[in-house]
């Protein structure tokens, strides 16, 4: 589902784009989106309550005695459902953004070409570095490795969800992702420091071994000297060789000790610098995290405050509406018993008043419709396939109806059809039911007396033409008879981007 965005998921159009979210440049009409699951289906069901659902959701609406709308619970039968097809070529010609838009790709192309671009032409695919696990573009992998994992990383992991300033949960998730990334960086840096410390420990062990060797060599002459004194042998005979050996050992290890000393000093400086860098980086990141948390707290507080204000306004409005409703219903409740117990004379007066109302609403047989904005309407029909002009509420021949028009695209162009919806009216108890009249559409020429007309013939249907309830009957249009919009434009019926149509009820012959 798409929420305040132009990101939609298609179902039933093409295996290359189905079930993958697409970012459209222009929004898709709301009457093409399933109100239950948010997908854009190839075939959608328009329920009598005017909610649109996909076939998968409609199959879940079935009950023992019919179907129930998943949104408002209203009941309907299969015959009352209007199945609408969304032409695939119409939708797949619309412009969409590349799936790698978050990674920097700015390509905008037709929906049916997106799969080919994504697989063959897009240079913004991502991968994870095997050394540091950072998200990087495939084309930047070698440069990233040459920089010792410090360059050309993406600002966030591939596929991370977009966040909205008004969505606290999304902000928290984004902050957690940022913290995880920074913890990974610190872990990598500390691992490097530990590796350097291990190397330093090996060097110190080597130095200790050398010192022990020298100590043993120095102790050897003393032991030899003691033995010489006891045996009376001259000291020079036994002492020269050990002392010379010590000198050779000292000379051999002198350079090595100097090198080790320099290495120890250098490693100490490196270790101190690394610790300072890690400390400074940790402090900076902690300060940044603290700042992010403060901003998050402020955003959440603002969001909660705004939500509280809205809820208070809604509560106040409901209270006012409830008070008005009680005020309006109280007189009706008081008058109902009196009306029930009224004398026959009162009933006669009521019938006379109804007769006056019926006389006032029975005179008109036709009405005039001025359809403005023909050019944008025609463009919409060519894109969406159809357009409904619901019309205004009016009494014709005593019937309370919505006299409207429906423009439908077909192989020959755009057809203009009659549309009707029977509403509950004041004359319903005195009229003949079901409604059974032909409907005539007449195009009025703005500068001459010529006319074009078509007649839509009546048929029996209690669903559409039976005595209406509180919400009226189901609307319908007549697909058989139509005026061709292209002919009307060519013959000059469209003037100043508007078209005048006479909508007329035609009585049937007595034999019918």
From TrEMBL:
Residues 34-72 form the RING-type domain. GO terms for biological process: regulation of canonical NF-kappaB signal transduction. PROSITE patterns: ZF_RING_1 (PS00518), ZF_RING_2 (PS50089). Keywords: Metal-binding, Receptor, Zinc, Zinc-finger. GO terms for cellular component: cytoplasmic side of plasma membrane. CDD domains: RING-HC. One of its GO terms (molecular function) is zinc ion binding. Gene3D superfamilies: Apoptosis, Tumor Necrosis Factor Receptor Associated Protein 2, Chain A (2.60.210.10), Zinc/RING finger domain, C3HC4 (zinc finger) (3.30.40.10). Coiled coil: none annotated. PANTHER family: RE66324P (PTHR10131:SF138), TNF RECEPTOR ASSOCIATED FACTOR (PTHR10131). This is TNF receptor-associated factor 6. It comes from Rhipicephalus zambeziensis. The lineage of its organism: Eukaryota, Metazoa, Ecdysozoa, Arthropoda, Chelicerata.
């Amino acid at each position: 589902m798409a929420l305040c965005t132009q990101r939609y998921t298609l179902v039933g159009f093409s295996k290359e784009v189905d079930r993958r979210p697409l970012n459209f440049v222009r929004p898709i009409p709301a009457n093409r989106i399933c109100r239950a699951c948010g997908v854009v289906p190839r075939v959608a069901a328009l329920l009598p309550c005017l909610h649109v659902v996909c076939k998968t959701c409609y199959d879940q609406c079935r009950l023992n005695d019919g179907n129930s709308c998943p949104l408002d619970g209203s009941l309907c039968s299969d015959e009352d459902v209007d199945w609408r097809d969304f032409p695939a070529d119409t939708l797949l010609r619309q412009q969409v953004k590349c799936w790698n838009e978050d990674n920097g790709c700015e390509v905008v192309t037709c929906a049916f070409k997106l799969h080919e671009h994504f697989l063959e032409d897009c240079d913004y695919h991502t991968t994870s570095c095997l050394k540091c696990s950072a998200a990087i573009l495939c084309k930047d992998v070698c440069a990233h490795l040459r920089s010792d994992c410090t360059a050309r990383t993406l600002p966030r992991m591939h596929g991370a969800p977009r966040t909205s300033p008004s969505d606290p949960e999304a902000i928290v998730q984004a902050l957690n992702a940022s913290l995880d990334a920074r913890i990974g960086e610190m872990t990598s840096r500390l691992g490097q420091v530990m590796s350097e410390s291990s190397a330093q420990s090996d060097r110190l062990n080597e130095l200790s071994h050398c010192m022990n060797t020298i100590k043993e060599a120095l102790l050897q002459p003393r032991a030899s000297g003691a033995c010489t004194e006891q045996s009376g042998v001259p000291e020079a005979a036994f002492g020269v060789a050990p002392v010379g050996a010590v000198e050779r050992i000292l000379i051999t290890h002198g350079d090595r000790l100097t090198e080790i000393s320099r290495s120890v000093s250098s490693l100490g400086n490196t270790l101190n610098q690394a610790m300072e860098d890690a400390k400074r980086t940790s402090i900076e990141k902690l300060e940044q995290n603290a700042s992010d948390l403060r901003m998050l707290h402020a955003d959440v507080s603002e969001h909660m405050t705004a939500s509280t204000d809205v809820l208070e306004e809604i509560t106040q409005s409901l209270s006012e509406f409830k008070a008005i409703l009680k005020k309006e219903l109280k007189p009706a409740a008081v008058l109902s018993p009196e009306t029930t117990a009224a004398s026959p004379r009162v009933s006669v007066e009521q019938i006379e008043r109804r007769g006056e109302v019926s006389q006032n609403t029975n005179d008109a047989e036709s009405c005039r419709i001025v359809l403005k904005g023909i050019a944008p309407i025609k463009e919409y029909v060519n894109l969406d396939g159809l357009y409904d002009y619901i019309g205004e509420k009016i009494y014709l021949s005593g019937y309370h109806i919505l006299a409207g028009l429906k423009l439908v695209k077909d192989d020959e162009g755009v057809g203009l059809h009659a549309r009707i919806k029977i509403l509950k009216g004041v004359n319903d108890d005195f009229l003949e039911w079901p409604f059974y009249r032909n409907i005539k559409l007449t195009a009025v020429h703005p500068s001459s007396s010529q006319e074009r007309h078509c007649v839509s013939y009546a048929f029996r249907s209690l669903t559409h033409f039976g005595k209406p309830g509180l919400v009226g009957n189901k609307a319908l249009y007549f697909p058989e008879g139509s005026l061709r919009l292209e002919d009307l434009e060519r013959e000059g019926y469209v003037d100043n981007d508007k078209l005048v149509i006479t909508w007329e009820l035609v009585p049937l012959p007595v034999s019918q």
